[in-house]
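Good morning N.,

You mentioned wanting to compare the apo and holo forms, so I went ahead and generated the holo version with 2-acetamido-2-deoxy-beta-D-glucopyranose. This is what I fed in:
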Amino acid sequence: MSEWDCEPDVLTYNVMIKLCARVGRKELIVFVVERIIEKGVKVCMTTMHSLVAAYVGFGDLRTAERIVQAMREKRRDLCKVLRECNGQDLKEKEEVEEEEDAFEDDEGLVYTPRDEVIEEGSEDVFKKLLPNSVNPSDEPPLLPKAFAPDSRIYTTLMKGYMKNGRVADTARMLEAMRRQDDKNSHPDEVTYTTVVSAFVKAGLMDRARQVLAEMARMGVPANRITYNVLLKGYCKQLQIDKAEDLLREMAEDAGIEPDVVSYNIIIDGCILIDDSAGALSFFNEMRTRGIAPTKISYTTLMKAFAMSGQPKLANRVFDEMMRDPRVKVDLIAWNMLVEGYCRLGLIEDAKRVVSRMKENGFHPNVATYGSLANGVSLARKPGEALLLWKEIKERCVVKKREESEGDSSTPMLKPDEGLLDMLADICVRAAFFKKALEIIACMEENGIPPNKTKFKKIYVEMHSRMFTSKHASQARVERRMERKRAAEAFKFWLGLPNSYYGSEWKLGPRED
Ligand SMILES: *[C@@H]1O[C@H](CO)[C@@H](O)[C@H](O)[C@H]1NC(C)=O
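and this is what came out, ligand included:
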């Protein structure tokens, strides 16, 4: 900026505080403030707010509190306070590391550092941006003047309490703000909404409603966000009737028209109580009121139908979504459609949807395959599981460079536990032991421990009497031998008595 004759101002530095917060460089924040002071730039109230917000974002409420306290005491030595907090952090970090070292000796565990986001090369950037952080001055500079905290700063600290579930502190803070002489630090609608959120989060809906009533009494009108927070709270507690009453009340009593978010919340609430008819009626009501559904509205309604075993209705919502020029159908919507059919074991319909989604340029992901695997299991069509596994397997292997170039559009797939466990389950039940072992190997490669207890139980219950029939053609006998070998290999893996006892096993034909 200086090269372009453009000197950074206080806004530039406020942004830099946010930057340090985003990349998790708590220790640098004090140096931004010191730099502002040293450059003779005027610190403003937003700087102070960004500071408190940054520490709240780090979850370091202790330092956030100390900043607010220092402001209340009209102190100008904020940089000294922040440096002390850095020093304390450093000391605690060392203590934690010592403890972890001791732990490592005991258990042989490797300590993985917390995921601090330090981008490559960012070190140099900060050295350049904040040269004072490399060689800090001996004495931290003083603020040119003291700043008294205002509602915004108190509310930000309060949000920290709320997010950490500290309901009592949130309420106490509201009380303290109300008693302030300074009008600038009286609670506003954001403050009250934060308190409402804290009570909602703790499941204390009655207390949350009391705050809403108090807002009206104090002449601080609630806004749509306040109401949406409350709506969500009722839905979470499955009190959809109360949510509906509140939806009416917000429009009639408070004159706040519900928006698409309010409706999405209540439609989602209907799903929680298995009320797909209710979900549809709120969806229609929303449209009657001239509120355009969003992608979330459509997929939520689809979910209502998919979960309640009405895939055809989900499909109709999907078609409507396709026709709506305001929204774009995404993978979530396609997956919801697949899930709807799979829940009923309608594999053929689900497969048709998957082909269509591929034609539309969407690649199935773990969720799609998970739905399909469940559907295959429900439909008792283990043959389908083999086809599914073949497709998944191809997408799991890291392709060599040359190979992938022609086919780079298909993204790699990282299968999850639910999917692989379901596939292995189907294969073990269907006595596809060779495939089962392949899937189990894939689980192990992905660091997913297969549940041996479960597979042993299935094997013993379903297959321990296999291969005992005496009457069969030659071809069948050979096929059976092949499968028996796979079964023996599988039993070996389970730790059940098997023909390989004590020797190495492989899946190829045996020499003897
Ligand atoms: C493994 O399966 C058994 C039997 O189905 C079950 O009781 C157990 O909870 C499962 N263990 C894990 C870790 O999932």
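The longest helix spans residues 78-107.

Happy to go through it together on a call whenever suits you.

Best,
F.
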